[in-house]
Amino acid sequence: MNAKVPSTSTGDALNAQLLVLSTLIQLEKQARKAETLTELGFLIANDTHRLLSYKLAVVWQIRGKKAELHAVSGVSVLDRNAPMLRYLQQVLQQYSPVQTQLPPIHNLDLTQISDNLREEWQAQGFGQGLWCRLQHPRLGYLGGVLLLRQTPWQDSDITLMSTLNDAYTHAWGSLSGKPPRVWLSKARKKLLLSLVFITVIAALFVPVHESVLAPAEVVAQQPWVVSAPLDGVIKTVEVQPNQLVAIGQVLFKLDDTKEKNSYLVATESLAVAKAELLSARQKAFSDIQSKAELALLETKVRQRQAEVNYLQETRERMTVTAEHAGIAVFTDVNDWLGKPVQVGEKVMTIADPQHTELLIWVSVHDAIPFQTDNRVVLFLDTDPVNPLEASLYQAAYQAEPTVEQTLAFRVKAKFADAQALPRLGLKGTAKLYGQQVPLYYYLFRRPWASVRQWLGM
Fold this sequence. Notes:
Layout: H1 10-33, H2 37-47, E1 56-63, E2 66-72, H3 83-98, E3 105-107, H4 115-124, E4 128-136, E5 140-149, H5 155-176, H6 186-203, E6 207-220, E7 224-227, E8 232-237, E9 244-245, E10 250-254, H7 257-283, H8 288-292, H9 294-317, E11 319-321, E12 326-329, E13 340-341, E14 346-351, E15 356-363, E16 375-380, E17 388-395, E18 400-401, E19 407-415, E20 427-438, H10 439-455
Antiparallel strand pairs: 1-2, 1-5, 3-4, 4-5, 6-15, 6-20, 7-14, 8-10, 8-13, 9-12, 10-11, 12-14, 15-19, 16-17, 16-20, 17-19, 18-19
Helix pairs in contact: 1-5, 7-9
């Protein structure tokens, strides 16, 4: 036994054994009190000398599948580029994989390393090595300790180191933080991978509803368009945007200055024509020539009267009133004041707030086959957590340019709850559901379409 134990007498031998036992207990206690792997590695490399005599102690740890130097006795900071440490690292790399079939603590078998490393070993004079593997029962191979000295290692040394090695392994496992390893046989791994692969393939054929997201707006179901009745300039707008209007209420007026002046001139011309006709009728009793002019003057009066009636009707049409009750929908009053308009040009619409629908613009890149009564879910920008249900009833066959200058299909949907209709003008995002398709088609439809466009297939 190469422990530091004197053997002069029976009493001395007993005291030596008690000293060894006390030292062993102290080392175990210190190992379990270590707070970091660095502290534990320094303790193993240097304080183990209190129990066993050695020339050099090398501590390594397993990182991945490689043995890496962790601490060396008598060295506070490792210089991994030092020749001796580089050599010891090579020995660990070669010997660590082959020693797992041997007992955790055994004499180093130099035949398991290469010839050049073995020759270098003899040249360095490392002598005999005691290999101590830190083999945790739950965490597996954590690292180890290699003790070197010139004299051979005895069975008593191995017994002492075995006891101490258990404490080192327990302390190392507590500090390493490695998760438990679940070892599977190759057959089970293949079976598990096969089941995962089959499950993924089967999941790709699960039927799901095709869907697409598109911007949407709440609009009137059947709005009444209010257009300019004549060519002219808008003089006043009598209502405000989103104002509730009644039948017959004035909406806007056109500038009637020209028509008013023309009406006054036509009225005066009519009065002159009537006076000439009256004068001719009085002269007709005695003047044959005046009697002949009566028919011409009567025609002239009728012409003037027609002009007055037309101008009067035109002036009345310059004031536009509401033919239906509802909400006036347009942008802003100032956008129309003084603006010239042409006959038939749209100025505003009258919408019934009790009859609204959903207008959706589906981009040509997101277009999917739509059918009547397909489900639509609206997420309003003002209340996205409470979606509204709707059903599709109309989808355009031809795309048209939108305000953003993109091509999109016009799609309309009716709200499911007619008693809780959202306010006109609200916007949001609509999710349109299409037919059922396999999951792989749902996932790869857009990428495949992009690839086909890029490749020209």
